[in-house]
Amino acid sequence: MHCSFFIPLFLILSTSLPASAYWKGFNLGANLPSGACKTQQDWSKDFSILQSLPGYFSSARLYASSDCNTLAEAVPAAIASGITLLLGVWTEDNAHYQAEKQALAQAIKQHGTDWIIAVSVGSEDLYRGDTDAATLAHQINEVRDLLCGLGACGIEVGHVDTWTAWVDPKNEDAIRACDFVGHDGYPYFEGSSIEQGYNVYSQALTKTRDVVNRVKSGALVWITETGWPASGAKLGLAIPSIDNAEAYWSSVACQAFQEGHTFWYTLQDYTSSRSFGVVDESFRPLYNLTC
Fold first, then answer.
1. Catalytic residue at 142?
2. Fewer CB within 10 A of the terminal residue: the chain, N end or C end?
3. Among the options 73, 100, 156, 225, which is catalytic?
4. Per-residue exposure over 124-146, b if at least 16 CB sit within 10 Å of its own CB, e if not
5. Catalytic-labelled residue, pool 124, 172, 190, 281
6. What is the model's pLDDT at position 40?
7. Cα distance between the two ends of the chain
């Protein structure tokens, strides 16, 4: 039976679907703690750990396509594990960018698209000042055209950046080019106390959403990076500790997973000077991840 009215997909996703309809996962780098590139077996291990955590995570965000043969190694493991991926395409420099697009195209030709959530063109490029909004918008459109040429016009293409970049008026061209906007926000890096962590996170997210709603109404804002370090240096009132990381998870992650597409930072990074990982070197949770 044909209905006489149409409800846009973004309204369905944002208002009527249950929390289980949202993608939730972790950011995953392509390197092992040793610095070596992950193999297909290593990716399979990561995906198995994701699925074993409380709440069952079935998605992950990758930063690159060609670096460390990311897609060539990760995609077969993801498909075998039933994991879906938010892909990344690095935009700097041109040779790297071309290699990234080629790796993305090759993965789609070989494996189809059922494993793809969406594609982020670049990551925090505007925050770092590596590019300008007009150039980035052109690259977003280029990747969208690439996907369409491969019969994958339905895959959303966007960009991931810090909330401070999204609220900067000079970056509105990038917002207009995006199907979705990836929001990165870290109260820790703003020197917030853990007691104010949720409020600082929420205020930044609201600012990003307000700008996106004004510039491109209907585009969803996804949480693409946030977290609290379990170890590392104090920054202002922000103190890394396992207890504080758990408190931030309980107050922010547990709500974010219920309200929208969310990719936590990060699964494992115990060798980093500021470690945001939720599991240790043996892949054991550092704290209670139950929501």
1. no
2. N
3. 225
4. bbbbeeebebeebbebbebbbeb
5. 124
6. 98
7. 40
